[in-house]
Structure formats: structure tokens, C-alpha cells
Amino acid sequence: MIGAIAGDIIGSVYEHDPIKTKDFPLFHPQCRFTDDTVLTIAIAKAILDDRNYFKAVREIGRKYPHAGYGGSFIHWLRSTAPKPYNSWGNGSAMRVSPVGFAFDSVDTVLQEAAHTAEMSHNHAEGVKGAQATALSVYLARTTQDKTLLRREVADLFGYDLDRTVEDIRPSYEFDISCQGTVPEALIAFLDSDSYEDAVRNAISLGGDSDTLACITGGIAEAYYGPVAPPIRDKVQECLTEDLWQITEQFCRRYGMQKSNHRGNLTP
């Protein structure tokens, strides 16, 4: 989960100033956490407590009203009686990585990922984006097999993963949809040789950089193992005390030391 948060922080300065290169400072002096981090941590808190995703997202989201939410989500967050608004936006995918770390069967991962999405992003593409991201985290940590991950996610969700970062980068533009973000974030991971390389791949596409890197970063951490201490330290430095406490608690319970087993694809 720290890998997802770090990806968000690293990509934050390029969200509105996209770049098409992997050559950039890993942590820009103006980098910060955004809504991707806030809602990822909210999902983690729900898993730690009672799986009430709606309650946790509303509680923590409202504590950080200026984190950079989209307009429809702001309305949902402020509403006294919020309803799902049929969103296909990538907000459902950016916040779901804790599900892939916490649960230990394909069926449960897919079910819980859907629950995290449906309270707001109940469009089929919004749910699919969350499920594909969570399943990728799960498969990355339990199988350590990129070929299997590519095949299973493509077969289950219909994403075109037979591309490379170099194929995508020249014509890719800012895209807030799940269907225009999640496959590209997955390819950024599949084309990488380390956590840092994966995040650099994602940001270099020149799109919704913090969200691309958040999705890619969670999967990359699951595959490559815990992020390097300097990255972890920078995440702690950037987060508020309450957000870091939830993050640390989640990592103690569902950390990589508990994720090195091999899992079967069949639930």
C-alpha cells in the first residue's frame, strides 16, 4: 500500500503538467499527497475496522476536503444522502490497492473491490477498473508471475495488455476514465524491472500522472517487495500523523512479510 501512496506523491506535480520522459527527480520539492492517497488510506481503515467502505471514505474524505477530488465526488462527499452516480472514472481504481494486499482468494478480492467501487463508481467500467487493479495486486504478490497476471487480467476484463510503454507514450493524453487509465497503468508495471522503474514508466506516459503512478505503484510493490527505506521515509514525511498511523497499522497487519507465499489463481 505504501507503494501506491508513494506513486501518488511522486506523480502529484505532473498531474496538470504532464511529461513524456522517465528522467525526472523522484520526489519533486513540491510533491504532496492527493485524493488518491486519502481514499486509499480510507479503504485500508475500513478493512482494518469493519469493511464499511462507505463510512470510512466519507469520514476520512471529509477530513481532507481540499485533496483534489473530482467535482462529482465532492458533491457525493458533501451530500447528506449520497447515492452512486454511475461514474466510470479512475477514482475507483486509485483507492483499491489495500484490497489486493488484505484478502487471500480471487473471489474475495473481486467481491471486496466491487464493494469499494459501487458506493460511488457503480458504472460497469468503474467496477471493472477497481476489480482489475485489486486482482493485479493480489496476483503480483501471490504468484510473482507477470505472464500469468497479463493473461488472466486481459482475459477476465478484456483489456488490451499486448502493448508496451513505448507504444502508448507518443499519443497518450490525459484520461480520467478507468478504461483509459487502468490498462496503461498495468502495462507500466509489466514493462518495469523495479518499483521505481514502474512508477517512472507510469508518469512518463503523460496522463493523469498521480493516479497512473498510484495504481502502478501498488502493483509494483506487491511484486517487487517493500519499497526502499528512503521512499517509505518520504511517504511518512509527506503524510499527516493520522494518515500515517492508519498506513503503518495496515502494513503491520498485511505487510509484505505476510505476502511472500504463492497463491493459486483458482479461488
Structure characteristics:
267 residues, mainly alpha, ADP-ribosylglycohydrolase fold, 15 helices, 61% helix, globular, disordered C terminus
How would you state the average pLDDT, rounded? 94
Return residue spans where pLDDT drops below 50 for at least 5 consecutive residues: 257-267
Number of domains: 1
Strand content is: under 5%
CATH architecture: Orthogonal Bundle
Q: With helices defined by DSSP (H or I, 4 residues minimum), what is the helix count?
A: 15
For CATH, the homologous superfamily is named as ADP-ribosylation/Crystallin J1
Q: What is the CATH topology descriptor?
A: ADP-ribosylglycohydrolase fold
Q: Measure the end-to-end span.
A: 23 Å
The CATH C-level class name: Mainly Alpha
Largest sheet: none
CA-atom Rg in angstroms: 16 Å
Run of helices and strands: HHHHHHHHHHHHHHH
The 3D shape can be described as globular
Helix-residue proportion? 55-70%
**Structural class by sheet pairing and helices:** mainly alpha
Number of strands: 0
